[in-house]
Amino acid sequence: MRGQVNCKLIGGPQGDLELTLSTIACKERISLMGDVWVAQGLNGGVLIMKGSIPPSAPWLTYIRDIYEKVKLDKPGLITYQFVCTEEVNRCEKILEGKDRRCRNEAVQDERFCKTHIKNI
Ligand SMILES: [Zn+2]
């Protein structure tokens, strides 16, 4: 299909995968979300969730697998090699007047996102 390319993701914890992606999505480095994530529960508890994260979900953490482009096998096929798994934490900033946390992901090994890390 025009503007689409077949991609093979190899060596990852979810096994080898074949996906069709739009050409513009095929960056040097792509990430694949795991299907387990952690959400804020009531009374300070947490919930372990499965599936994709709804846009307004009170998510706290999710795991994603990072892949890097290895070579162009032939036109229309791109191979990605698994690099690592990283944990993504949500920015801890509570937005004023909104009573919820910022939806951005925190910078790796930090508690806040790129925007809020400057204002601590
Ligand atoms: Zn933030």
Question: How would you explain this protein's 3D organization?
Answer:
By secondary structure, this protein is mainly β. The protein folds into 2 domains: 4-89, no CATH class; 90-120, no CATH class. The protein contains no helices and 6 strands. It has strands at 4-10, 17-22, 29-40, 46-50, 59-74, 77-89. It has a 6-stranded mixed beta sheet, with no helix packed on it. A hairpin with a 2-residue loop joins strand 5 (59-74) and strand 6. The chain is elongated and about 50 Å long. The model has no long low-confidence stretch (mean pLDDT 91). The chain binds zinc ion. Residues 91, 93, 102, 104, 112-113, 115-116 line the site of zinc ion.
Keywords:
single chain; 120 residues; mainly beta; 6-stranded mixed β-sheet; elongated; binds zinc ion
Can you list the ligands bound to this structure?
zinc ion
Question: Approximately how much helix is present in the residues?
Answer: under 10%
Q: In what range is the share of β-strand residues?
A: over 45%
Number of strands: 6
N- and C-termini, Cα separation: 48 Å
Number of domains: 2
Which of globular, elongated, flat, extended, rod-shaped describes the shape? Answer: elongated
Tally the helices: what do you get?
0
Radius of gyration: 17 Å
User: What structural class is derived from the secondary structure elements?
Assistant: mainly beta
Biggest pleated sheet: 6 strands, mixed
